[in-house]
Amino acid sequence: MTNPNTLYANTFVDALIAAGLKRVCLAPGSRHTPLVLALARHRDAIDLFSHLDERSAAFFALGLALASGEPAAVVCTSGSAAANFFPAIVEAHQSRVPLILLTADRPPELRASGANQTIDQIKIFGDYADWFYDAPLPEADAPPVALRNLRTLAARAYAIAARMRGVAHINWPFRKPFEPGADDAAVLAVDKRPPTQFVQQGRADDSGLPALLTEDLLARPGIIYFGHGSCRSEAERQRLLPWARRLSDISGFPIFAEFSSNMRAANTIGAYESFINAAAMDFSRVEVLIRFGAPPLSKAMQDFLEQASLRQLIYCGRTRDWADDSHRITQHLRLNPAALDPKEWDAFAPQSKRADTWREHLTEADRMARQVIADEIENGAWFDGAVLYDVVDLTPAGAALFAGNSLPVRHLDQFGLRTAAPFMAYANRGASGIDGNVSTALGIGAARKGSPLVAVLGDITLYHDMNGLLALQRCGVPATIVLLNNEGGGIFHRLPARAFEPHFSDFFITAHGLDFARVAALYGLSYVRAEDRATFRQAFTEAVGGPGSTLIEARTDAIADLQRRGDIMTAIHRKLESSHA
Question: Model-level pTM?
Answer without folding.
Answer: 0.90
